[in-house]
Amino acid sequence: MEKIKKFFLHWEWILVVLIVATFAFFSNKLGDSYTFVKLLDQTRVYIVDVGFMALGIMLILILGDIDISIGSTAALSVTVMAVAYKSGEGLPFSVSILLALLVGIVCGLFNGVLVTRFKELFPMIITLSTQTIYRGIAYIILKDQSAGGFPTWFSKRLGYGKVFDVIPIMLLCILLMFPIFYFIVHRTAFGRQLFAIGTNINAARYSGVRTDRLKVLIFAGSGLLAAIGGIFLTSRTGSVKYTIATGYEMQAIAVAVLGGASTSGGKGSVIGLLLSLILMTCLKNGLMIAYNDSFILNLSIGVLLIAVVLIPNITNAIRAREELKRRRQASAVQ
């Protein structure tokens, strides 16, 4: 009985309850404006591009680090892609996409090298600096201009295409990533090393884990995922400006934390991340239909995140108090 109780008290089950409650509330309040089919269509806006970035952020949070440059990494990557393609007059589009992915890897690699070589600096300070640098390079390349003229299939098939006229192709692309990430993070020695570093980096190092090499690899992977997210975002918007993906780093961190990752490291869940994305989609879409106000949207998400951080701390404090009470009673009996 105790095992069943603990199983259903897992954070993933709490997220499932929140998803059902949120969907039931808005579907009752908004009626035909808020249906499952319409919500499925909105996953292109709220799940895909942020989801790819959140996967990378989750891995970094598991390590006990943070990267707030992923939005700028995405912007610089797709800027290079747009300039290289030059509306069909430059490089082939496939080569331009490969260049965007390469830029993402290089940006992440640079972050990883700085974080591992300058341990006296917090990763937040380092990535805050690179955030400005990457966004600044994108501005130098494009100025205030926008770049577009991408192939028709890029927007119509990838950005707005649907399977059976219901399921967005973009959604299927990211859903295919979750089983892969679940296996890597939760079922391999590589994943166990990530959690070991986040839990106690010195113990992991003495156990033979090459912590610096692994950190650089994860930061590079996060840069790659940011570039992929930027490509999907561009397929939806149809053009690129240096301001593209502004604020996406905060959204990705919010999704990862809501999914169960900890900013202190050693915690993270791929299933939790997926459920967090679904919950955010239900909440954001409902709030936008009901109020059409981005301020209320950001305020609500901020309150939700504070609650997510506070609830575990409060429950841990209650459990610690109860445990202390039990020990005192046991010692009094003796």
Largest sheet: 2 strands, antiparallel
Subunit organisation of the chains = single chain
The chain-level mean pLDDT equals: 86
The structural class is mainly alpha
Pick out the low-confidence regions: none
Number of strands: 2
Shape type: globular
Instruction: Please report which band the strand proportion falls in: under 5%, 5-15%, 15-25%, 25-35%, 35-45% or over 45%.
Output: under 5%
Describe this structure in words.
- Helix 4 crosses helix 12.
- The chain has 15 helices and 2 strands.
- Strands 1-2 form a two-stranded antiparallel ribbon.
- It has a domain at 46-275.
- The mean pLDDT is 86.
- It is an all-alpha fold and 334 residues long.
- The chain starts with a helix and ends with a helix.
Which tags fit this structure?
2 strands; mainly alpha; 334 residues; 1% strand
Can you lay out the helices and strands and say which pair or pack?
Elements: H1 2-8, H2 11-30, H3 36-62, H4 70-85, H5 93-117, H6 123-142, H7 152-159, E1 162-163, E2 167-168, H8 169-175, H9 177-187, H10 189-199, H11 201-206, H12 211-237, H13 248-258, H14 270-291, H15 294-333
Antiparallel strand pairs: 1-2
Helix pairs in contact: 2-14, 3-8, 3-12, 3-13, 3-14, 4-5, 4-6, 4-12, 5-6, 5-12, 7-12, 9-10, 13-14, 14-15
